[in-house]
Amino acid sequence: MTLRQAFLTGLILLALSFQVLVLVILAFFPYVPDPGFSSLDTNIYAFLAPLSTIFLLGLLYAWLIRLGTREARHYSRRFEKLIQFFSEPFQTLVSSVKTRSLSDSARTFKILSHPRLLLAISLATSVLLALVPYRADLNPTGRLVGIDSPLYVTWINQMLARPFPQALEYSFVEGLDGSRPLLLVLLYAIASLGVSPTQIIEYLPAILAPLLALSTYTFVRFGQGNKGLAGLTALFTPFSFYVTVGLWGGYYANMLALIFVYLFLTILLLFSKSPSATKYGAMFTLSVALFLTHPWTWIFIVTACLVFSLSLLRETRRSVHLKSMTGIVIAGIALDLLKSTIFATRTVAADVAAKLPTSGQVASFWINMVDALFYTHSGLLGNWIVLALGLLAVSALRFKDWFERLVILWVGVASIPFLVLDSYHQARLIYDLPIPVLMSVAVLFFLPQMGAKNLRWPGLVVTLLLVIITNYAIQGILLL
After folding, report:
1. Residue ranges per domain, the chain?
2. Which residue pairs, CB below 8 angstroms and at least 24 apart, start in 7-12?
């Protein structure tokens, strides 16, 4: 071990020891005395939180920077030399990232050779995190956690007070303006068995959170094909924004929608490689389920998939990809019109038009973004480490790989409406980003290259990252 490796490894071990100590204090709160370590950790987060704005902008608009840089280098010799001058110190790292696949990088870490173990840990921690706010010692009154949670209880009770046909109509008309009928019908079915609506909402996150981890694992495992990357993605999932913000806001329909999103995109990638009627039927079914769960997320994801299909048409000269997605879009529009006609409700298009931004919102882009990161969800989205990893990932993703291309377009499509939306809808767009996927991609792309010369055990950095984001997630949940 060189002196440089020894110094950096020791520094990381010191930081890891501190974070593990904070984790123990938080995990056994309030039974372990805290001499101020968790407060110090929180203050460090708060001090570095403003970096989140820069990292988020980089994450969302890295594609635009890359495109603009490529075009400028093509037309300007002087700009080409300037880019070469500034990129010279990172030339080895950049070339390694470009030539090394995710599968090759995954072999660097021994822990990734046990993806099922990582998935099991992810599922268990997802359940535990979702149940923490309802611990009797932390929540003796048993109050519901989440802004929308009492609304869900009200909707379920309203449906239970009606005969089944009228209850079904209520889910399509009155429950959140009829935009979340599928989830309401599922919750109503469970309540009809005699389960208390309050109890249903209390345990609902403990069901959705592990399913989200399983869906991200499925997306990477079958969409990208690497088990190690899939296991790492699943492990990052419960500690991303999905569980903390989902619990804070009671965004259960959005959580269920993300489960459908990852499954839908998995089938889309499989269908793109080998089209079949069975895969298309699964895509179509998941699209309908997504539309009936969270139509705004459906619009966002279907738009990204349309752009993806257009890129495949240009590359393969096969129209089956675009035709399949066009059929799904037409079916969604027809379903929206049918639902609006039968139940006399507003269409999704009309709802979007009603929420179009004003000129004042567009001019207040920076203020809206700051509000989205630090105030809309009590600052839970202002996690600079998570967003920094996301920025690293999108800067390294390659358009030629179909899995990576889909992730690039997922983020790129979100960046366009993000410019003009208010802070609340900006926050929802951030929530819908593939954050766990980006985090695991960043780790596998960059850590092996940086660790080879500087660290004795690169796996220590992965462990440190996991403990840091775990602490952030637990701190966020304890504040609920």
Report:
1. 3-74+96-478
2. 8/454, 8/455, 9/455, 9/456, 9/457, 9/460, 12/455, 12/460, 12/461, 12/464
